[in-house]
Amino acid sequence: MDFIRTTIDGPVGTITLNNPRKLNALCEHLVGEIIQALHDFEKAGLRVAILRAMPGVKVWSAGHDVSELPEGGRDPLGWDDPLRELVRAIETFPAPVIALIEGGVWGGAVETVLACDIVLATPEATFAVTPAKLGVPYNISGMMTFMSAGSARIVKELAFTARPISAERAERVGMVNHVVPAEKLEAFTADIAQTIAQNSPLSIRSMKECLRVLSGAKPVSPRGFERFQGLRRMVYDSEDYAEGIRAFKEKRKPVFIGG
Ligand code: LCV
């Protein structure tokens, strides 16, 4: 594996993001390695997976690899996009996935973390939902991931401002389970993981799947779905979307014209 490290401690497996050159941006290669590691953990019958970055990182993950986003005319977050595949792999992994967060979590990496079952963070960790900064029309299941982690009002503030929020604020609004000082976080995470691993894996697996289905069970009519997709297409076909991606690559602030 080039971009991750994996370790196994009895019934608990750990995946460590390790592509510092790209700030662990969720590129196709990195995502493929994470998904493969989860498949390996499932085959090995592990009872908990921990997803983390290297100790002491300033950036846990910079989010979707912007260089892999289309420059317009195509849905940037379609079904087979690596980020979508990663979120589904976490959600359907048949055991709890614990996110151990140090540093900044950006864009699609926030959804990835929120797709995990338990989120543990240091006080210095931050979370920034960034589609509006890039001009990206976030996708429907992604918005539901955010909605299941926080109230619509909090999601709107995060999504509309695109500003990072602190781990403490994220904990207060229910997006993070525990905020723990960095020097204690590994032991705290291991304790929760080992506790889970001693409980019934079948009971936990069924409850995780029930909760996944129930949290996604928001009635959306076919007409409503098509309207969402029409709204999203209007965005990714827009000049604003192309400008957002171009500005990121040219390392300048985008100028959005609303069209
Ligand atoms: C590719 C990158 C990235 C990156 N992709 O270091 O949620 S959505 O809809 O927005 C979704 C589509 C999504 O997830 O989009 C990505 C959202 N992510 C962000 O907005 C974070 C963008 N990155 C940053 O704001 C900064 O890089 C942070 C604050 C994370 C770190 O800043 P720092 O000054 O430490 P640099 O900005 O210098 O980045 C180091 C290298 O990593 C690249 C960046 O272009 C630079 O490349 P070069 O060394 O070639 O110049 N990089 C950073 N983020 N998401 N590449």
Q: How would you sum up this structure, described in words?
A:
The chain has helices spanning 28-43, 82-92, 108-115, 131-134, 140-147, 152-161, 167-172, 182-197, 201-215, 222-236, 239-249; strands spanning 4-9, 12-17, 48-53, 59-61, 97-101, 104-106, 118-121, 126-128, 165-166, 178-179. The model has no long low-confidence stretch (mean pLDDT 96). The longest helix is centred in the first third of the chain and has 16 residues, at 28-43. It is globular, with a radius of gyration of 18 Å. The protein has one domain (4-194): Alpha-Beta Complex (2-enoyl-CoA Hydratase, Chain A, domain 1). It is of the alpha/beta class. A hairpin with a 2-residue loop joins strand 1 and strand 2. The protein has a 6-stranded mixed sheet, with helices on both faces. Strands 4-6-8-9 form a 4-stranded mixed sheet. Bound molecules: ligand LCV. Ligand LCV binds at residues 22-23, 25, 59, 62-67, 69, 104, 106-108, 130-131, 133-134, 136, 138.
Provide the descriptors you would attach to this structure in a database record:
259 residues, alpha/beta, 2-enoyl-CoA Hydratase, Chain A, domain 1, six-stranded mixed β-sheet, four-stranded mixed β-sheet, 11 helices, globular, binds ligand LCV
Q: Short description, anyone?
A:
The chain is α/β, with parallel strands linked by helices. The protein is 46% helix and 15% strand. The protein has one domain (4-194): Alpha-Beta Complex (2-enoyl-CoA Hydratase, Chain A, domain 1), CATH 3.90.226.
